[in-house]
Amino acid sequence: MPHYITLTFRDCAATYGLSEAALHELADLGWLRLSAEAQQPEPLIEDEADHLARLARLHHELHLAPEGIDLILTMRRRVQQLQYELTRQAARAAQLEAWIRRHPATDAE
Prior knowledge:
CATH architecture: Orthogonal Bundle
Organism: Hymenobacter gummosus
Number of domains: 1
Strand order of the largest sheet: 1-2
Protein name: MerR family transcriptional regulator
Low-confidence stretches: none
Order of helices and strands: EHHEHH
Number of strands: 2
Pfam families: MerR_2
Largest sheet: 2 strands, antiparallel
Helix content: 55-70%
Structural class: mainly alpha
Distance between the termini: 48 Å
CATH topology: Multidrug-efflux Transporter Regulator, Chain: A, Domain 2
């Protein structure tokens, strides 16, 4: 179960070691969820703690700029979609094979 936290950009920068400018850029790229009710001068980041930690690791360990993080996360999302689709298609194939075994008189011609 995801653990969501709510932070200001300043608090998030201090906690995860990302600059506020980088956080704003990641928000502009769509990689940070902002609180819908944040109509204050400074919007609030409302996101999964694991996701924020992943962003920080990509920035600190790989020294990636926000554009590089965007590319990596886009590829990660696509790989996850492909894994889901592969699992779904494998389940469909297994279901079809089971049906064919139960109906041996069915001719594939």
